[in-house]
Every structure is written in structure tokens, then in C-alpha cells.
Amino acid sequence: MMLQRCLDDGPDFLSEEDRGLRAINVDLQTDAALQVDISDALSERDKVKFTVHTKSSLPNFKQNEFSVVRQHEEFIWLHDSFVENEDYAGYIIPPAPPRPDFDASREKLQKLGEGEGSMTKEEFTKMKQELEAEYLAIFKKTVAMHEVFLCRVAAHPILRKDLNFHVFLEYNQDLSVRGKNKKEKLEDFFKNMVKSADGVIVSGVKDVDDFFEHERTFLVEYHNRVKDASAKSDKMTRSHKNVADDYNRIGSSLYTLGTQDSTEIFQLYCHIPLFYFSQQKIEARVSADEDLKLSDLLKYYLRESQAAKDLLYRRSRSLVDYENANKALDKARAKNKDVLQAETTQQLCCQKFEKISESAKQELIDFKTRRVAAFRKNLVELAELELKHAKVTGIYFCFHFRQLLFHRIIEVGLEGTL
Amino acid sequence: MAAEREPPPLGDARQPDLEELEDGEDLFTSTVSTLESSPSSPEPASLPAEDISTNSNGPKPAEIILEDDREDLFAEATEEVSLDSPEREPILSPEPTPAITPVTPTTLVAPRMESKSIAAPVIFDRSREEIEEEANGDVFDIEINVSDPEKVGDGMNAYMAYRVTTKTALPMFNKNEFSVKRRFSDFLGLHSKLATKYMHVGYIVPPAPEKSIVGMTKVKVGKEDSSSTEFVEKRRAALERYLQRTVKHPTLLQDPDLRQFLESSELPRAVNTQALSGAGILRMVNKAADAVNKMTIKMNESDAWFEEKQQQFENLDQQLRKLHASVEALVCHRKELSANTAAFAKSAAMLGNSEDHTALSRALSQLAEVEEKIDQLHQEQAFADFYMFSELLGDYIRLIAAVKGVFDHRMKCWQKWQDAQVTLQKKREAEAKLQLANKPDKLQQAKDEIKEWETKVQQGERDFEQISKTIRKEVGRFERERVRDFKTVIVKYLESLVQTQQQLIKYWEAFLPEAKAIA
User: Which keywords accompany this UniProt record (chain B) (predicted)?
Assistant: First the structure.
């Protein structure tokens, strides 16, 4: 039924718990000057509409509290406007949220609908519920990702003042930013290729500053390893889910076996493991959820580390430009031609480079702080939840064991383990 | 197992225990409440007198086992003895029947309280172990181990030889402990002989493990990888279970072929077991013919018990197959999970290495370690899932096929009897015709033939009754064995679950402070 509501034009409310998703990835300070969140979201056939809610005491805005509806493309437009803005070259641009992708989930639901005739009513209902829950989970996640982006911008001392950002928050009409068409996407592709090639050349230049040299080495390696870890974590999640499903199936089989059997004791021996299997199923699901959270964290830092790398690239680029400008100035002075122009260019390059270096240093330090905090929070939560569940399961198992022993159903051999 | 049960005190000393049982809280409200009957008030209805007679389903051991050990013993012991006496004698000490005959089944059963006081002093004359054995059903003093798989020969003619060790105190064997070397086809040969001898009279002969051309070829070719060692181990365990099941059967244990298999150092090679041999092809043809026959025989089932049981076995077969498939899927996914967890652990360790914040780096390395340990646990659990559950289910699916086979034999027996009757009728008609036609010489022949067929009809009827009786007993035995086997496996499985759980707790508990220490 959740699915229906998702697919209809009805509202969908996000609980407090879901807002917490934001905190997992980024430990941000929110202050009264500007608070942004996504208060509501609606999933239609092929797009998601986010209700962006702002609370601000800044004089820039007409009201203190207001909301607008935005779609994914508008977020991307905002992100790209930051990237293209030369003034922000010295900052880590918060990574753009990934596109909402319900294709896989929708496909599964469709397959389920087609296969309805071949399974029992209960199986069908159960599977439908599970797929709906999955859909809902993906939905919540995409909302969280979009919210994190906005919060990062709002928390950044410089970016929060950006005019485009204010327009994004306040302008209650459609921003008319359509998604990129094929030609533009192709242009982007080439741009990226050029950038990577350039990046290779530029990264060959050894940095005079130890701090940046270290950061570059670190980020390149870190980025690759985070990518790897996130992929492996995904695989683990899938495996855990498969195991959970298997336990589910075994549980149902045992149940049928037990209820149909004539021997009562056999019934009992089917019902006992049933409890354990359902508990195991729950545990496997919890593990899958935790793996997923870890995956999400890793993926987020994959994107952020890329943004940090981009910053370093921009700095290197400006360093190269500065050095080139120096050479040009020397040449001009030697030839005594266009010296003023060369001087101006050189000065601009110098200023740009120094400005970027200064802010980049702070940005990278902040990045580290954020990263460490986010990982800490996630790892602590992971351990606490796994522990809690393992204990619950353990107590559950032991308790049942005692019961069974008490009723003299199982032989004495197990007393040693309790 | 017998030693662990303390002899229950007679009479009133028991009562407090029963009350404890009643008052104790239990979580199994749905299952236990249905099975729990108030122990202090006897329920004659639960053990109707007819249960003890040979025509019944067999009693319900379930309710009894749940309630009181002592009642368990008595109820089972009585029905065991009354049904089995002829076969039992050579194996157990010849005391049983006299102990029971003074007390008729009905009085023993009806008011349970009375049965305790009447039967108790009488049965307690026999040794405790014997009663235990009977109550548990078919526990004989013989232990079989299959071990030391050894490759003999090279290339496509190579085979695996297994050591079969027997430890026994039974008088029919020459020694107390002995071992022989056997190959897989020897086991198949044994099964084939036993099946030919016993299945058509209604005994459920445990089936031998399946052939596997793929598996064996790998071994022959000499691939020393984990899958072929796994295959050999799987086969060894299956062979062991096969022999253990076979020797548990009181009738089969008596068989000379079995004894020869266990004892003699040299065994004639069972060539007829090869799939592509002449005998193999003949077997296939016979199987096909049987299948066709089965479809055409429409038996007039006079006994509802058989119809019911056949249906039950069909259901059980289906359910077990489904369960087996699910368990195999679980084993497969667990292995995958294990591999993925190991890969993630390595990846997390790498990430930890590159992380330049010391505490976080350490925490990530710790996470990697925890995940690695958990991977180990997953592997062990997969092992448990596999060997305990999956193999047992496979065995039972094959066993049920044997049970179905036995039911089919009964049908064939019935058919034979019916055919004899039809032939007899024809002969009688022929005789009547000859009488009218007045041909004295042929008449005598006809009369002789009638006599012959009358005997055959009688024999047919006797055979049919005998096989029916044997099947009932065998099915009862099968059900008990099934319960016992599943109980053992489930208990072991649950044990492993508990241990895994405890380990998991330890690992995460150790990791948590590391995570919290990230400053």
C-alpha cells in the first residue's frame, strides 16, 4: 500500500528516523542563520519531487520560513553552477546527489506481478511486502542524499551565500532547467576526458608544499580503496540478503512439513528449528541493512574524495598557470613587449593560486574532520546494532534451549554450552 | 545414551516433577500446549487398546515421550515386544514375552496409572539396558566406521578404497573388532543383494549412496583440489551412514551377505553394479517395465492404513525435496557470503592502511579483522548446514523412494494373488467344461491343476498378508528412526547455532571500544 501511495500523487511523510540518515554521513552543525531540509517527497512515475524547506534569519530572504518543490535536475544544475564558478575553485564542492533510480525495484515488482499465478497467496503477499519495503528504502535513501547535499551547502561559510543557491531555495516557480540533452552529455564526456588527461599531466608536477603533496598522494590512494571497499560491501549486502531469503524459505518448508506430518514429535522437531530460522532470518536482514549503511557511507566518501581530488586538480592547474604566466612575463620582459599585460596576467594568476591554496588547505582539513566523525558514528552504530542483535538472538536461543531441556525434549548433551 | 537416564523412582516420588512440568512457563505456547496433556490425569483415549494390535497405525510415541520417561519406556516397550517377538529372540536375551503375557494389552493401556503399577515390577526384572534398547528401538551393540579413503591405481581404472571398521560384542561375529578395505562398487553390490532378498517381502532396505560419474572422474584423473577432496569426504560420510542404517535393521543384521561384507578380507567384485554393464542395462529395462506396471495396477485397497500411509509418504517426499533444495541454496549462499566477507575484510584492511588518521585507521583494521573472523564462522556454519541438514535430507529422500518401492512390491504381490485367483477360476471353469464334455483323462489333469492353483492362491494370500504385516512394522520402525535422526541432527545444529551466536557476540564486543576510541 506504501507503494501505491508512492506511485500516487499523495504526500509521503518522512519520519524523524529518516532525517537521521543525513547525520550518518555528515556531522554538520546547523545554525539558526540558515537551516535547510527536505520536509517531504513524492514519487511519481518517472520523477521525484522534493519539498525543500528553509528556515532562515538572514535578511536576503523575503520570509523567515518557506518551501519550494524541486526535482533532481535542479539539484544538478545548482551543483554544476558551483563547479563552473571560478570563485569557488578553492573549495570542495559538495558532491551532487545521485540520480533517483527505481528501475531495478520497479522491474522486480513487475516480474512479481507477472508471476502472481505461479505462487501461493501468502508467498505473493510476502514477496510484495518485501519489494515494497525495498522500494521505500531506496526512496528514503535518495531523499537523504539530496538533503545532505543541501545541508553541506548551507553549512559552508561561502557557498551558503551563493545567489543561485538562494534562488534555488526561494524561487517558487519551476527553475526551467531541463536535464542535459544528448549533445550536452557528449560535451560533458569530452570535457571529462580532457580533464583527466590534463590531470595526469598536472599531477606529474611535484608540489613545493609538503602538505599538498601529502594530501594528493593520500587522496588518490584513498579514493581507489574506498571505491573497492564500497563495491565489496555491496556484494556482502547481497549475500546477506540471499541468506536471509533462504532461511525464510526453509522456515516455510519446515512449517509445512511439520503441520502436515502425522508424528507429533516430528512436528515438534520441525517447529523448534522454525524459531531459530526466523531469528536467523532477522539477523541476516539486520546484517544486510548494516552492510548497506556501511556501503552508503563508503560511497558518499567516494564522491567526496573525488570532489577533494577535483579541488587539488584545480589548484595544480592554477599553479601551472601561474608558472606559465611567470615564464611568459620573463619572456615579455626579455623582449620588452606587452610587459604590462604579462604582469597583470601574472599577478592575477598569483592571486588566484594563493587564494585557492589558502582555502584548499582549510577545506582539506575540514574534510578529514568530517570524514573521521562520520566513520566513527557509523562504525559505532554498526557495532552496537550487530552486538544488540547477536545478544538478542543468543538470549533467544539459550532461553529456548532451557525451555526444551526443562520439558525434557532434548537430551542432556547441550548443558555444557549454556 | 542409556547411561545418562537415571532410573525413575516409582510411585509418588514422581508426582512433583510432573507438576513442575505443568507449571513451568514455556514460550512454545502454540506447539507445546497442543502436545502437553496434563500428566497427572491419565488419558485412556490417547492410547486406545487397538494400538497394540497388529492392525493399527502404531502408537503415538510423541505424547508419551513428552510427558514422563517412565511412561515412555513402558508404552513403547510393550508394543515393541508384542509386534516383534519372533525376530527379536535371537538377538536379545530370550526373556521378553513371559514378562508381558500375564498382563493383557488392554489392561496395560487403558488407565495409565494402573499400567504403571501393574507392569512396573514385572518389567523391571529385565535389565535396564534391554528395556532402553527396545524403547529406543533397535540399538544393537555394533559400531561401524568408514575411514581412510585411499586412491588405488591410476587413470580411469583407479578407484577409492575405504576402510570399514566394525566394533561389536555381538556373538555372531568372529571377533570384537575388525576392519576390511572396500570400494564403492562393493557397497553397491551389498545393497543390490540385500534389496533383491528383502524388498519384495516388505523390508525397507536402506539405499546406498548415489553414483557420481563427474565426481569420480575428477578423482580418477587426479585433481587434488578442494572440490574433489570434498567429494571424497561427502562420499565417505554417506557410506558410513549407509552401513550404520543397514546394521540397525534387526533382520538385515542377520544376513550372511552383510556379515561377509563386514568381515571377509576378500570380496568378489560386484561387476553387476556398473551402470553400463549388461546387468545395469537389464536393471534399467526392469525399472521402466515396473513403472508401466505400476500405472496399470489398480489395487483394491481393503486397508485404509496403506492408502493413508502412501499418501503421507508422497507428501513427505515432496516436502523433503523442497526443503532439501532450500537447504542446498542456503549452503551455496553461505559460501558466497563467506567469500564476499573475506574480500570485504581485505578491502577494509587496505582502506585502514591508507587512512591517515591513526585511531580511524586502527578501527578500520579492527573491523577488517572482525569481518575475517565472522567469515570463519560463516564457513563453519555452512559446514554444519551442509553436513547436518542437507545430507540427512538427501538420505531421507532416497529412503522414502525405498519405502515407496516396498509399497509397490506389496501391490505386485496383491496382483500375483489376484492373478492366481483368476487362473484358478479359469481352471475351475475348464474343469466344469471337461466334466460336461466327459473326457476323463484330461479331467484328472484339470483337477491336479486346480489343486496346484488352489495352493498358489493360498500362498498368494499368505504372502500378501505377510508383506502387509512386515510393511506395517517396517513403517513403524522407519517413523521412529526418522524422528530420532532428525532430533539428533536438529539438536547438533542448534548447538552449533548457539556457539556461533556466542562467538559473534564476543567479536562485536571486542570491536565496539575500538570504534568508540576514534577521537
Answer: Acetylation, Cell projection, Coiled coil, Endosome, Lipid-binding, Membrane, Phosphoprotein, Protein transport, Transport
